[in-house]
Amino acid sequence: MRVDVDSAAITANVRALRAIIGVPVCGVVKADGYGHGALRSATAMLDGGAAMLGVVDLQEALALRRAGIDAPLLAWLHGAGTDFRVAAAHEIQVAVSSIAQLEAAAAAGATIHLKLDTGLGRNGIARGDRARAIARAIELARGGARIRGAMSHLAGSSREADLAQVADFAAALEQAAPLGLEVRHLANSQGALALPEARFDLVRIGMAAYGIDPNGPAGGDGAAAASLGLVPAMRVTAAFVDGVASCGLDDGLLPALGAPVRIGGETARVVAIDPCRLRIEPALTGEGVLWGDPATGDPSADAWAAAAGTIGYETVTRMAAARRGSAAAADAGTAVTADAATAPRRVLELGLDGEPQRLLGEVIGVKRAEAGLGISYGGEYVTPGETTLALVGLGYADGVTRSASGRPAVLAGEAHPIRGRVAMDQVVLDIGDRLASVGDPVELAHASAPELTGMIGARVAVELAGSIADADEMESLGFAIGARLRAGDAVLLIGPLGAGKTTLTRGIGAALGARGTVQSPTFVLARTHRTAAGPALQHVDAYRLLTDDDEEAELDDLDLDLEGAITVAEWGAPLEHALESWLRVEIERPVAGDDDDGDGDVSPRTVRLSGHGPAWPAGRVRGLAADRAADDDERQERA
Question: Is the peptide bond before 299 cis (omega within 30 degrees of 0)?
Answer without folding.
Answer: no
